[in-house]
Structure formats: C-alpha cells, structure tokens
C-alpha cells in the first residue's frame, strides 16, 4: 500500500474528499464524495498515470478511512489541511504553496523553475515547444535569457501540469487559453498569469510573474529624475485632465500607473480602474476587469464607471477610438484620467490619438501630461 500512499498524498485526499482503496498497474479504485466530478478524476489520472475507477462514499466514511490508511488522528486533519499546499476555488484563483515533494516529480521541477525565476526577478517565463524539445527562457530586465538547467520531462507532461494549476482544459490543444494561479510560502505570495498559444510543434506557454513582495509602489522608486517626479506630483494634484504613460509592452507602464494611484489614494476620493487583467490588487481602490466574451470591453466598462461618481479613473490601455473618446470626455468633465498607450515616444502619443479620431482642440484641453518610458537594466 506504500506506493498508493505516495501517489495520492494525505493532503490531496483531504482537500478533495477522497481516499484510495486499491491499485493495480493500470487502475486505481478511489472512494469519492463526488465521483461525478470529472475534473478531479482527470487530474488523478494525470498525477498517477493510471485509469481511475471512482466509487461513491459519504464524507464521514471517507474521513475515517483516511485516518486509518494514513495513520493520522482526527485532530490532525485540520492541521494537515492548513499546513499543506492547497487549491482555492477558481473565483479566488488557485493557490499552490511552494513546497518540496518527492524527488523527480514534475511538481517539484515546476516549483524549482518558478522559484528560480522569482529569485532572479524575472518578469516572465517562456516555455516554447519545438519538434523534440521544450525551450525555457526567462525575461530579466527586458531581455530573454535561456534557462541552463536540464529538462527531464516530456513537454506534454509539463504543459498539462501547468494547465491543471491554472484550471484550464488539459484536453484543449487547438485554441489559446488564459488562466492564473497563485504561489505562496511563508514569506511571499506571487500571482502567476498563464497564457497558452498553439504552435506548429505544440503549445507555447508564457507565465507572467507578479511578485507582490517586490512591488514598492512609491513614485520615488520609479527611477525617474527628481524634476520629473516633482512635475508628476503637480499634475496628479489637478482636479481633472488626462495623464498618459507610453512605451512598449513590458516597459513598466502599469507599475507607473499603480504608483500614481497609490499616491492619489485617500479616503476622500473615489478611484475606479478598468484593467485587462488586474495585475495587482490595490487596497481601497475599486478595480474592474475587462471580459470581452460577455461584452465587458474597456469602452463599455468606462461608460458604466462614469455613472459611479468617480473622482479618478484608471484605464489599463486605450486601444480604440471609442475608449479614447470616452476617456477624453471624462477628462474634460471633472475627472482625472490615467491610462497607457503603445507609442514609441511622447510626441507620437498625440499623433496616435488624432489618428484615432480625437479632435486636436479636445486634446489641447484634456491632455495634461505624457510620460514615455523604458526599462533600464540593473
């Protein structure tokens, strides 16, 4: 029975209200509170590399068998659940505690991969499928750097495990998928955004690392010149107008906006954001997430937000004419609007907005400041 207990740890059994009953080379019989839950059985099939035969048991019987099989007392059950890594429901995003598990498992290997990326302060991990290999690179200070360690697992195994962690469909390989999970240990909590793209040799995954412990949202920590910080504070003190931050993807635009919001955040103002996605949760600020699949676009959410009596509005990105028009109108009607735009320099921002259809005389009145920025390597 030892091999069976190693395949299904006690914390996993407790977390999912199940207990293994018997094992063969190809089949494991498992008593479950919800045997109809295909998500759990698929995950078990992946983790154990065997077919799963679920049977229905009631919860007291399952807990009694867990106590007997794993030789733990009933008093220990709550402590085990609190101490071991656990998944939360998808509404809160999955949390996977960093921990060491049995040597040689893909779970441990992925923990090591992500932990090393966090230590090296990487912003992204790229896992790229090629004909007979999986290539891994870290983006550190804006530059992609190859991961030198060996990869001892089939790329399909690694990708499937990441899909499970992000609550994605492990059987879907034809369409792009997006998800997220959270890793935590005693010292820090790290949000991981997952983006999956089908390619000719398999799926490419990018993990965006959002490390809250390294986030120091103060204007002084942005690396700007003192004069620019002073000017930014002056503009942020205005009652209305538009402030835009421009630059390529990964140049720190969101960090600049969040630092500005933290500076502005006080009890007497109502701050609302529209983001895609929400990268960090800011206490005291109302944050909303774009969901195009149900019609929640930047433009539609911005219209609703302006009926919520906001003082300050942050729009994650101005992507189209409608969003630009609403943002400019808001800036002209007593709101301070902060947003980003993809342009190469500050001057190009004005040209881009005019190309979108915004009248130049409106920009003259609404636009108060444009910051164009890049990341500088340490």
Features of the shown structure:
378 residues; alpha/beta; GMP Synthetase, Chain A, domain 3; Beta-Lactamase; Rossmann fold; 3 domains; seven-stranded mixed β-sheet; six-stranded parallel β-sheet; 27% strand; elongated
Describe the structure.
The protein is an alpha/beta fold. The chain folds into 3 domains: 1-89, Type II secretion system, protein E, N-terminal domain (GMP Synthetase, Chain A, domain 3, 2-Layer Sandwich), CATH 3.30.300; 103-211, Beta-Lactamase (2-Layer Sandwich); 214-372, Rossmann fold. It is built from 13 helices and 16 strands. The model is unreliable at 81-104 (pLDDT under 50).
Uncertain segments are 81-104
Radius of gyration: 25 Å
- Supply the CATH superfamily name of the largest domain: P-loop containing nucleotide triphosphate hydrolases
What number is the mean pLDDT?
Answer: 84
Number of DSSP strand runs = 16
- Structural class comes to alpha/beta
Topology of this structure?
Elements: H1 2-7, H2 10-16, E1 18-23, E2 27-32, H3 38-48, E3 51-56, H4 59-69, H5 74-83, E4 94-97, H6 106-119, E5 124-130, E6 133-140, E7 143-146, H7 155-165, E8 177-184, E9 189-199, E10 202-211, H8 226-236, E11 241-246, H9 253-264, E12 271-275, E13 286-289, H10 298-305, E14 312-315, H11 321-332, E15 336-341, H12 346-355, H13 360-366, E16 367-372
Parallel strand pairs: 2-3, 4-8, 11-15, 11-16, 12-13, 12-14, 14-15
Antiparallel strand pairs: 1-2, 5-6, 5-10, 6-7, 8-9, 9-10
Helix pairs in contact: 10-11, 11-13
């Amino acid at each position: 029975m030892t091999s069976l207990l190693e395949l299904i740890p006690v914390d996993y059994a407790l977390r999912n209200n199940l207990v293994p009953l018997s094992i063969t080379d190809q089949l494991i019989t498992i008593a479950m509170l919800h045997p109809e839950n295909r998500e759990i059985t698929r995950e078990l099939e992946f983790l154990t590399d065997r077919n799963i035969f679920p049977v229905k048991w009631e919860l007291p019987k399952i807990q009694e068998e867990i106590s007997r099989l794993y030789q733990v007392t009933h008093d220990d059950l709550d402590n085990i659940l609190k101490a071991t890594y656990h998944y939360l429901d998808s509404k809160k995003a999955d949390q996977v505690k960093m921990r060491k598990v049995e040597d040689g498992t893909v779970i441990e290997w992925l923990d090591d991969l992500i932990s090393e990326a966090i230590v090296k302060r990487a912003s992204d991990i790229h896992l790229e499928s090629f004909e007979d290999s999986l290539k891994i690179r870290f983006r550190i200070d804006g530059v992609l750097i190859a991961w030198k360690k060996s990869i001892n697992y089939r790329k399909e195994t690694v990708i499937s495990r990441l899909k499970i962690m992000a609550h994605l469909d492990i059987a879907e390989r034809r369409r792009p998928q997006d998800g997220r999970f959270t890793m935590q240990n005693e010292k820090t909590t790290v949000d991981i955004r997952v983006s999956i793209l089908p390619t000719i040799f398999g799926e490419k995954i990018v993990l965006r690392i959002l490390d809250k412990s390294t986030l120091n949202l103060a204007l002084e920590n942005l690396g700007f010149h003192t004069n620019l910080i002073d000017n930014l504070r002056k503009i942020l003190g205005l009652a209305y107008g538009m402030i835009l931050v421009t630059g390529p993807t990964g140049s720190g635009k969101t960090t600049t906006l969040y630092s500005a919001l933290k500076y502005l955040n006080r009890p007497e103002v109502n701050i609302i954001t529209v983001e895609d996605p929400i990268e960090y949760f800011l206490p005291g600020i109302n944050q909303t997430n774009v969901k195009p699949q149900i019609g929640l676009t930047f433009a539609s959410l911005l219209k609703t937000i302006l009926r919520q009596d906001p003082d300050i509005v942050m729009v994650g990105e101005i992507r189209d004419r409608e969003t630009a028009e609403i943002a400019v109108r808001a800036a002209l009607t007593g709101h301070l609007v902060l947003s980003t735009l993809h342009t190469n320099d500050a001057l190009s921002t004005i040209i881009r907005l005019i190309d979108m259809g915004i009248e130049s005389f409106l920009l003259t009145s609404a636009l108060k400041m444009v910051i164009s920025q890049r990341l500088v390597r340490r």
